[in-house]
Design a protein that fits this description.
Blueprint: E1 30-39, E2 46-48, H1 52-60, H2 67-81, H3 88-98, E3 104-108, E4 114-116, E5 120-126, H4 134-137, H5 139-142, H6 146-169, E6 180-182, H7 191-201, H8 211-221, H9 235-239, H10 246-256, E7 260-265, H11 271-282, H12 284-288, E8 294-299, H13 305-320, E9 323-324, E10 330-331, E11 336-340, H14 346-358, E12 366-370, H15 372-375, E13 385-394, E14 397-400, E15 419-422, E16 428-431, E17 444-448, E18 451-452, H16 458-465, H17 468-475
Parallel strand pairs: 6-12, 7-8, 8-11, 11-12
Antiparallel strand pairs: 1-5, 1-13, 2-4, 3-5, 3-17, 9-10, 13-14, 15-16, 17-18
């Protein structure tokens, strides 16, 4: 399955400085180096494995080594270290013998699969004995899979919370894919990180304002359109009308977008009056006229979310009425809903939904928007991601490589060649020291010698990541 890496960036420069010297540090006559990546623990007990395909396609496929890149790297590293430590001979060998294609093999779990932490997620090894030093040269780049993986994990655990309350208080889970909307583009560190993180969120949901995430899913996972949005107001488009013009600003939203969903931020001055005197008063007829044509989504954007959401729902119900669903929880009329986009995170969702439930409201009345907490409030240690060497061959002798720091048992690494197997009870186990059954190994070769061998579609990824509750409800 051919895939040519895009761009002209110099892959030889995409590593930590000290790795440039590591070709001089292995034992004499080392021919094989095999390393693995795992989540050693962390905030969430399982991880959604996602994003390796982006890295492979973006950086590793095709002819990625050239004379010009070797020359550039040699000159830069000589200045950087103050002496010539660069493995020019090794890179020239890759260029001449492998035509600039990387003699590496990467095996990974299927993207989107949910794996308990402390299990191998992918392995890397050299395929040419003269390139043993290459395996760990790319640790720096490959470990960056921690970011999309952790965003997808964070997003999925929020989906679990929403699904739980939706299942308890709504008649269906139909709205679930659109109940956590990505507001994180502006809070990301770059357009590229917004694309990676935004795409990772779309593994679990289909609502986003992070267009970069849609573009990433399209380019690297073959998905024509992974996410959707609606017309929505921001404070500037409301407050430029002036405080006395808020009613006209709201009227403008309803008349300019007369059909479908439209969201309007409503807390610029007084959220309670906006709900009761404007939406439920002066503009009530316009709101009600959306019946069978669309929905107004009222957005509070300040205050204590659990308190504000329930009070907004109560005021809107007073103005527009409410009815009970089959599970005995209240629903506003279909033409009006609420979105809470301030202070939303894994830690806060439950309190909001629990307070709604306590006051008799179905979770179906509300959608969420999340920004920094969704795409930025996490790091490599959120899931304690690590890449370690576990096997080598030196002087023809196989070595089970590991570390076991006496000061931190949690950092003890795995030994030997690894397989990831699913036991009869459904639990995953990483079998070490080459003792596993390769026929049961979930890891599959996704990259070898410069070629992408497995191209996961976004539909496959989403299917692998789907909640068991959703799967069960679809069967019922």
């Amino acid at each position: 399955m051919a895939y040519q890496a895009a761009g002209t960036e110099n892959l030889l420069l995409v590593t930590d400085s000290y790795k440039v010297t590591h070709h001089m540090q292995y034992p004499p006559n080392t021919t094989d180096v095999y390393s693995y990546f795992e989540s050693r623990g962390g905030k969430f007990p399982s991880t959604v494995f996602f994003g390796l395909q982006y890295i492979i396609k973006r950086w590793l496929c095709g002819k990625v080594v050239s004379k010009e890149k070797i020359k550039e790297a040699k000159e830069l590293y000589k200045l950087h270290f103050g002496k010539d430590l660069f493995n020019e001979e090794g890179w020239n060998y890759i260029l001449e013998v492998h035509d600039g294609h990387l003699p590496l093999r990467i095996r990974s779990v299927p993207e989107g699969m949910v794996i308990p932490y402390k299990n191998v997620l992918f392995t890397v090894e050299n395929t040419d004995p003269k390139c043993h030093w290459l395996t760990n040269y790319f640790e720096t780049l490959l470990v960056q899979v921690w970011y999309p993986m952790t965003v997808a994990t964070n997003s999925r655990y929020q989906k679990e919370i929403i699904a739980k309350y939706l299942d308890e208080t709504a008649d269906t889970l139909e709205k679930l894919p659109f109940m956590l909307h990505d507001f994180g583009f502006r809070g990301s560190t770059s357009v590229e990180s917004a694309g990676i993180g935004g795409c990772a969120h779309l593994v679990n949901f289909m609502g986003t304002d992070t267009i970069a995430g849609i573009a990433t899913a399209r380019q690297y996972y073959g998905c024509p359109l992974a996410g959707f949005s609606i017309p929505a107001a921001e404070h500037s488009t409301i407050t430029t009308w002036g405080k006395d013009g808020e009613v006209e600003a709201f009227r403008n939203m309803l008349t300019r977008f007369p059909e479908g969903l439209v969201a309007c931020v409503s807390d610029s001055y007084n959220i309670w009056e906006a709900c009761e005197k404007v939406w439920g008063g002066e503009l009530k007829g316009l709101v009600e006229s959306r019946k069978d044509k669309g929905t107004l989504v009222v957005r509070p954007d300040s205050g204590d979310p659990p308190t504000v959401v329930v009070k907004v729902l109560d005021i809107l119900a007073k103005c527009f009425g409410k009815e009970k669903n089959k599970k005995g929880y209240y629903l506003l009329p279909s033409y009006i809903r609420v979105i809470q986009g301030d202070g939303i995170s894994y830690e806060t969702l439950g309190a909001i939904l629990e307070n709604m439930k306590k006051h008799g409201w179905s979770a179906e009345n509300l959608a969420f928007g999340s920004g920094g907490a969704l795409l930025q409030r996490l790091d490599r240690d959120t899931q304690k991601c690590a890449f370690k060497c576990s096997y080598a061959k030196c002087n023809g002798k196989e070595v089970n490589v590991f570390k076991a720091p006496i000061t931190d048992p949690g950092k003890e690494s795995k030994k030997g060649r690894l397989t990831l197997e699913k036991q009869a009870d459904g639990k995953f186990v990483t079998v070490q020291q080459g003792a596993g059954d390769v026929k049961k190994d979930i890891l599959e070769t996704v990259f070898e010698n410069g070629k992408l061998l497995k191209d996961f579609s976004f539909d496959e990824v989403r299917k692998n990541a789907e909640l068991e509750l959703v799967i069960q409800r679809k069967k019922e």
